[in-house]
Design goal:
The protein is of the alpha/beta class and 270 residues long. 42% of the residues lie in helices and 16% in strands. The protein has 13 helices and ten strands. It has an eight-stranded parallel barrel with strand order 1-4-5-6-7-8-9-10, surrounded by six helices. A hairpin with a 3-residue loop joins strand 2 and strand 3. Helix 2 runs parallel beside helix 7 and helix 4 crosses helix 6. It starts with a helix and ends in an 8-residue tail after the last helix.
């Protein structure tokens, strides 16, 4: 049975196969812009505390809807949401640019990034070199590479292209076998998605289980199913460097306060 990832991935591959743009031109345009913001450094900065307590970075996600949950915030203002996340203590942003399945667009990313000083991940289904060049052209500082969507050759090539543009690559895995593939191509930033690809259910033990196999020196981000400060604290204790959160933030009335609350902080009123 085809998974949601299979269906969405197939759509993106059809788009990529119909793309007749010149890759050399795209690459030149991608390199011509201002240097990317350092996504990895922003994730690591959260650890510069002397309290001795486990700390963790938050990658706050901007998306209008999802295939499983439907509309989340279809009328959101990307700049306004980005500013709320930044003032609440987020270290980085993740912005969905997939239109048909998530209601996103490159414009959402551009507006969000222009409104804040945070590095931004283009959250999309990367299947071609053009996808990475497009990400850099629209201003993204990092790209998502989903191991389950790519063969080993594609994964290695796309990871190398991102590095050549000084962009971070968040390599997403769902289990230990995918983690091994990610490590084989030299991934230094790994996302562990707790959502099952077949049932679309969240397995809250998955991140901690897979994290035990991640070697030192590789940054770990937990994705999906992170809804509370208790969830975040548990993942910090499990050794995660960051969490990626979308739905819990987007459904809230006060996104600034909820962002801070997930990190165990409070923000002044007003």
């Amino acid at each position: 049975m085809a998974t949601y990832l299979d269906r969405i991935g197939a759509w993106h591959r059809d788009v990529a196969s119909a793309d007749r743009r010149d890759l050399n031109d795209l690459a030149a345009r991608a390199r011509a812009g201002a240097p990317p913001r350092d996504f990895t450094e922003a994730l690591q900065a959260h650890g510069a505390k002397s309290s001795g307590e486990a700390t963790i970075a938050l990658v706050a996600e901007i998306k209008r809807r999802s295939p499983s949950k439907g509309d989340l915030a279809p009328d959101l203002d990307p700049a306004e949401v980005a500013q709320a996340f930044e003032s609440g203590g987020a270290s980085c942003l993740s912005v969905l640019t997939d239109g048909p399945h998530f209601g996103g667009s490159p414009e959402d990313l551009k507006l969000a990034r222009a409104a804040v000083g945070l590095p931004v991940l283009r959250k999309d289904f990367t299947v071609s070199a053009a996808d990475i060049y497009d990400a850099r052209i629209m201003g993204a500082d990092a790209v998502l590479l989903i191991v389950a969507l790519l063969d080993d050759g594609e994964l290695a090539e796309l990871h190398q292209i991102a590095g050549g543009l000084d962009m971070a690559a968040l390599v997403e895995v769902h289990d230990e076998d995918e983690l091994e593939r990610a490590l084989e191509i030299g991934a230094t930033l790994v996302g562990v998605n707790q959502r099952d690809l077949h049932s679309f259910e969240v397995d809250r033990t998955r991140a901690e289980r897979v994290a035990r196999h991640v070697p030192g020196g590789v940054l770990k981000i937990a994705e999906s199913g992170v809804e509370s400060a208790a969830d975040v604290a548990a993942l910090a204790r499990a050794g995660f460097d960051g969490v990626l959160v979308g739905e819990a933030l987007l459904r809230s009335r006060d996104r600034r306060a909820v962002t801070a609350g997930l990190l165990g902080r409070t923000v002044p009123c007003g």
